[in-house]
Amino acid sequence: MRNYLQLQDKAVDLFRFMFEQRRPTILRDLSCIGASSTLLREQGLKIPQLISLVDIVSYFDDHLQMGDELTARILNIETFVLAIKDLRCWVKHFYDQSQIPELTKIKAMQRCCSLMVRVVTLTWDDYWEVSAERKLEYLHLIKSSLQLLDWLCIQKKDHFIFNEESGATNLHFIISRCNRALSQFRAPPSHIQLPLDELIGEPKFVQKFEYQQFPFTEIGAILQNILYQLVRKNSKLLNQLLSQANFGFVFGQQLILEYEFVRSCIDKKIESMVLIDSYVKKNEIRLNTLEYLLRSSEKSLKDQFLASPFFNQMFEDFIHDFREFNIQFSKIDLEFLAFRRSYPIRLECISIVNTVLMLKREGMYDAYSDLVMFSRRHFLIKRELDLLRYGQ
After folding, report:
1. What is the pLDDT of residues 38-49, one digit of tens each?
2. Quick count: other Cβ atoms within 10 Å of Cβ 233?
3. Angle, helices 366-377/344-361, rounded to nearest 10 degrees
4. Cβ proximity of 48 and 42 under 8 Å
């Protein structure tokens, strides 16, 4: 019986995987089996409809044609999220095999991405004006939209989002929303956490979405990863867009915001609630973005970063921050375990110093010169020696 149940679970997972791909031949073959619908329904499954780019794009175009009449309040969140999933499925499994002309596919995807940017803007701006239930729906839509944009960048299809026509506008959207997400801890209490008392009568939403004191933390990580992918690609167009957006300077400010956020969580003893799920991922994104920014062929990005107040504040303050996480062992996952008894801000600053020293060995001296200047200004070596001699 046990083996039978295990086999049944694996079969259900297999069908879910096939339905996510929506291969036309598989769906047609299953539909021809008489009892397939009944058997699938018993497992909470059903044969999905075939998808086509024309149907998906027409849905997005209908919303685009609404112009200023399109508002967050009239959006059907569930339908829109399903359209996003269909679009990802089509790009993943059917884009390369499609006989539609390449330019037509690109233009269609660009329109869809532009609408998602607009819809995220509308829902985000309306977020604090709606009920708690609607807030959760908005978060689901924002996260689904940005995850698709992030996935497109990872799959090297960022030209759907960042191109000569709308690239500057979309990049401004990504940077400004990322800054807003990273600075959420500075907002008043009413703009930080969801009112749980309003959700008591809505158990389905409480079960579907994990409560977060800072609801945009994960969304901020998605936006940061999009920016990391753009810096990492190091293409002429993307470097030009990033330089025009003054991203090097902005990134320095984002690092300051991140460290202040970690400090705030440690001081308020809310690490278990806020940081444990996202810290490891965001730590990796920050360090990788810094390395690829310093390696970038666009020199202005490095100059912008070095002109930011980050290095000065790092040597003056952050690198001497001995705050440590206070998290119960039972709540820690394996990824977070290495950070449990460490000083997270100081540790990351040391990693940044190591990155700059590594790049110096490869002939990249700009950041190294600034690092030496600020370390001398703030007596880094003396303070570190005093720590070794006398302790903290």
Report:
1. 666 766 766 666
2. 16
3. 130
4. no
3-state secondary structure of 321: coil
Supply 388's token pair. Answer: 């070794």
Could you give the C-alpha distances from 1 to 5, 6, 12, 19, 39, in angstroms and in order?
A: 6, 9, 16, 27, 19
Q: Which residues contact 173 (CB under 8 A, 6 or more apart)?
A: 117, 120, 121
Q: Which two tokens stand for residue 318?
A: 């952050």
Tally Cβ neighbours within 10 Å of residue 175: 20
**Confidence (pTM):** 0.85
CA distance 239 to 216: 27
> Is it the case that residue 128 has pLDDT exceeding 50?
yes
How open is the CA angle 283-285-286, to the nearest 5 degrees?
65
DSSP 330-371: GG--TTTGGGTTS-HHHHHHHHHHHHHHHHHHTT--HHHHHH
Question: What is d(CA 234, CA 216) in angstroms, rounded to the nearest whole number?
Answer: 28
Which residues lie closer than 8 Å to 109 by C-beta, 6 or more apart?
91, 157, 160
Residue whose structure tokens are 């073959």: 29
8 A C-beta contact, residue 202 and residue 277: no
